[in-house]
Amino acid sequence: MEPPDEAVRTHRHLRRYLLTGETVTVATRLHWAKILEPIATALAVTVLVAWLHSTTGTGWVWLLWAVAAGRFLFRWAEWNYEWFVATDKRLILTYGFIIHKVAMMPLVKVTDMGYSRTPTGQVLGYGRFVMESAGQDQALRQVDYVPNPDHTYRTLCDTIFMPRTQPGQGQPRRSEGPPPSVVPSGRREPRPTTAELPIVPPPGRGAAHPAESRSPAPQDASRPAPGAPTWQATGGVTVPQPFDSSEVAGPSGRTRPRQGRPASSRRPARSRGSERSPYDPPSSDGPGTTVPDPFL
Fold this sequence. Notes:
By secondary structure, this protein is α+β, with helices and mostly antiparallel strands. It has helices at 4-10, 12-15, 36-56, 62-80, 119-124, 149-160, 210-213, and strands at 24-29, 83-87, 90-95, 101-106, 110-116, 126-133, 142-147, 247-249, 255-257. 25% of the residues lie in helices and 17% in strands.
């Protein structure tokens, strides 16, 4: 097996399909086992025609041999143009004697690659490669009769799945630790500090807050407490509350006198001559009057 660069340099039809700057890693003609069947057919026809000619003495039987020989020559010419080439950018398969054809697949499209060898391939020394793409049908998917398959498989794996640097860029540098920290050069100025601001009292007053120095104003005992009712006495008779008890049981079971409501907070009673509505609630103190139930 000749080196890839030598094969490209020797065969002119390979150079027309390569780009400038491509690095060839694999360049090989398909295995001769592909034309094994035409060779066997031509040999079998030759033996058969020779036997017929020796027994019958007719010369037209050699036409069968000419057909088999012509088929073998045509298949050999096609095999001579079938090349499998792998570069650092794509995979190429050239074939066709009368009509030249090129099948190509970029390396970035290859997601997986299968490699198999039949029993005949193990004996004769060829294999099959199947390239898988990301759910797309490519022109180049399967390559049969690849010679020296083990070495070709390792070379293709290194070409397809190992990143390579472009020519002139050099090898990538690997970081063996964390990146170095950036330290400013020169003398560092001290960071300014914030001083506490003093509390200045308002002018004309002391340090104490005005609200703290004030004393609560005395409250008039005759004025009702905030929130207490401000009913005015009318001079009528006050009916005591029927639900009010003079004693209330405490938590310990002892009774204590209930504190009565101040006179100023009691509701004034109605006059004797005024009519009372059956829906009016009883007055503040005393047994009160009996209110009939309007629904009975």
